[in-house]
Design a protein that fits this description.
- With about 400 residues, the protein is of the alpha+beta class.
- The protein has a single domain, classed as Cytochrome P450 (Cytochrome p450).
- It is built from 16 helices and 14 strands.
- Strand 8 and strand 9 form a beta hairpin.
- The longest helix has about 30 residues.
- The radius of gyration is 21 Å and the shape is globular.
- It starts with about 25 loop residues before the first helix and ends in a 6-residue tail after the last strand.
């Protein structure tokens, strides 16, 4: 293994202690300046796990993201495989390369066209109205648990085909899978127990859709054929899991982090209250500053040069979006929330085959959530200390307590 030119004391970037309060932005700033492609020799949580390269600048992340022949999604898109069986991770099409990745992803394209997403707006507003009506008479709430979670659970549930009464159980399960390092989130379940429950729930849904197909994504997966063959059941299960992971974690994470920023910086919130047409810009700024998923991994298929470092065949290469989205070479004052910035960013990926399938739905949800929250509660205030999920995989709050204030017009 080639040593980096500057290793910042051989910092292990994926150590959970560095992420207790969210992404280690000061560390990423040092890495971008001193060693933008940086080698970490191991992981405390899994001593047998090989080291990895951290990619921290936007241009290098773009290079890795778009060159799937050199930087493969196989065998996994996570840093370590100690949590969940890698053979199951490989069944998610996000962990596949073309051509199979493209063929499976294409199965879902019809469900995520901008035109179809736009038609969902009335239903989305109805879901949000129902959730907010449950706050009537309340002076306080937790924006994560009482607003964001139920909204995204129902929106995603309707796309996938989950009955409304099962939303809380599915959400808790997927949160446990994605943030399993956090004891509050995993609720005492081991990775094995989480997988067992996931398969049991998905197999029940699959059996129902085999008998009675519906206009939902679960039915598409169950009855799809790739190269003349139905998808194996484990690929259907992990396909459903991937849809839920993207839908349940992404919008909730960015909305809550963005609202926290607006509550802590009233001048930026005032801009949106005075001119709601700025909300789409504020959404993109929230996505830039708070990408819901902290990283994606690739594995080098051959020797390559990246950011002045020699990458060897088989090396793990980690794209850190909280860093690339605050790259000083791209953004002026990158740590400052600017509701008028309307930036390009890499929170849906940095181009290439794995660009997020649900980006149009996520944008619609975020725009309507910000709009309705600010309109209804223009004087909302923080009512306690926000708490981050303890994980290196997500940029996500698990609690955002607020005082609602008087209702707006």
């Amino acid at each position: 293994m080639a040593e980096p030119k500057e290793n910042l004391g051989d910092t292990w970037v994926a150590e959970l202690d560095l992420w207790r309060d969210g992404p280690p932005h000061e560390l990423f700033k040092e890495m971008r300046a001193q060693c933008p492609v940086h080698w970490s020799a191991g992981m405390t949580e899994d001593p047998d796990e090989p080291g990895y390269w951290s990619v921290t600048r936007a241009e290098d992340v773009k290079t890795v993201s778009r060159d799937w022949r050199t930087y493969s999604s196989h065998p996994a898109v996570v840093i370590a495989t100690h949590g969940f069986p890698v053979e199951l991770e490989q069944k998610e099409f996000i962990a596949m390369d073309p051509p199979r990745h493209d063929r499976i992803k294409a199965l879902f394209q019809a469900g995520f066209t901008p035109k179809r997403i736009a038609l969902q707006e009335p239903r989305l507003r109805a879901i949000i109205e129902k959730v907010f009506s449950g706050l009537d008479g309340h002076e306080t709430c937790d924006l994560v648990k009482d607003v964001a979670a139920p909204v995204v659970s129902r929106v995603t549930g309707e796309f996938v085909g989950i009955p409304e009464e099962e939303d809380p159980e599915w959400a808790a399960l997927i949160n446990a899978r994605m943030g399993f390092e956090d004891e509050d989130v995993n609720q005492g379940r081991t990775p094995g127990e989480i997988i067992d429950e996931l398969f049991a729930r998905c197999q029940k849904l699959i059996a129902e859709r085999r008998v009675e197909p519906r206009d939902d994504l679960a039915s598409i997966l169950v009855h799809a054929e790739v190269e003349g063959e139905e998808l194996p059941e484990d690929e259907v299960v992990m396909g459903i899991a991937l849809l839920l992971e993207g839908g349940l974690d992404s919008t909730k994470a960015t909305f809550c982090s963005g609202m926290r920023e607006l509550l802590e910086h009233p001048a930026e919130r005032r801009k949106l209250l005075d001119d709601p047409s700025l909300i789409p810009s504020a959404v993109e700024e929230s996505l830039r500053m708070f990408p819901p998923f902290a990283h994606m991994r690739r594995t080098a298929t051959c020797d390559a040069e990246l950011g002045g470092q020699q990458i060897k065949k088989g090396d793990k290469v980690i794209m850190w979006y909280p860093s690339s989205n605050r790259d000083e070479a791209v953004y002026e004052e990158p740590d400052r929330f600017d509701a008028e910035r309307n930036p390009d960013h890499q929170s849906f990926g940095a181009g290439g085959r794995h660009f997020c399938l649900g980006f149009a739905l996520a944008r619609l949800e975020l725009n309507v959530l910000f709009e309705e929250t600010l309109r209804r509660y223009p004087e909302m205030e923080l009512d306690g200390e926000p708490v981050m999920v303890q994980t290196t995989s997500l940029v996500q709050l698990k609690s955002l307590p607020v005082r609602l204030g008087p209702r707006g017009a």
